[in-house]
Amino acid sequence: MNRVLIIEDEKITAEAVKAALAMKNVDADIAENGEKGLAMFEERDYDLILLDLKMPGMDGEEILMQIRKEDPFVDVVIYTNYQEFADIKKLTNIGIQGYVNKGAKADLEELVDMIMRKMAPLEVHDIEKMVRSTPRDMLGESEGE
């Protein structure tokens, strides 16, 4: 079963996302602040982190930087009302895999679909494409092989 960590200070929002993910057989844990989110992240393995940017105490950028120090590969999707382009660009450079607006026009089904796509296993043709594009020396092969 896939596991998602929702780091979100708005309890109603977090519970709605958790319930929607449960309908897709995705287990989700909720942390209501950054400190608790980091502690939970260190205790368990997660396939994806859903991260709010603006929270009391530790903000989303600080949390993201800590997550990236510990795990550069876990998918992190920003889910926030905050929409400052320069900040989103900076977060993209730090290492987010997506951004979803949770404002009045937010679509919970769209969010869940995005999460499901991010956690879906790679198709065989995608794996073959990645292997073909990987330099041979990284695969332990020489040019003559």
Distance between the termini: 39 Å
Mean pLDDT: 81
Q: DSSP strand (E) fraction?
A: 15-25%
Number of strands: 5
In N-to-C order, the SSE pattern is EHEHEHEHEHH
Helix/strand-derived class?
alpha/beta
- How many strands, what sense, and barrel or not for the largest sheet? 5 strands, parallel
The low-confidence parts are: none
The side-by-side strand order for the widest beta sheet comes to 2-1-3-4-5
Cα radius of gyration in angstroms: 17 Å
Overall shape: globular
User: Helix count, per DSSP?
Assistant: 6
Indicate the percent of residues in helices. Answer: 40-55%
Protein described:
By secondary structure, the chain is of the alpha/beta class. The protein contains 6 helices and 5 strands. The chain has helices spanning 11-22, 34-43, 60-70, 85-94, 108-119, 124-133, and strands at 2-7, 26-31, 48-51, 75-80, 98-101.
Features:
alpha/beta, globular, single chain, five-stranded parallel beta sheet, 5 strands, 18% strand, 145 residues
In short:
With 145 residues, the protein is α/β, with parallel strands linked by helices. It has helices at 11-22, 34-43, 60-70, 85-94, 108-119, 124-133; strands spanning 2-7, 26-31, 48-51, 75-80, 98-101. It has a five-stranded parallel beta sheet, sandwiched between helices.
Q: What is the element layout, followed by pairings?
A:
Blueprint: E1 2-7, H1 11-22, E2 26-31, H2 34-43, E3 48-51, H3 60-70, E4 75-80, H4 85-94, E5 98-101, H5 108-119, H6 124-133
Helix pairs in contact: 1-5, 2-3
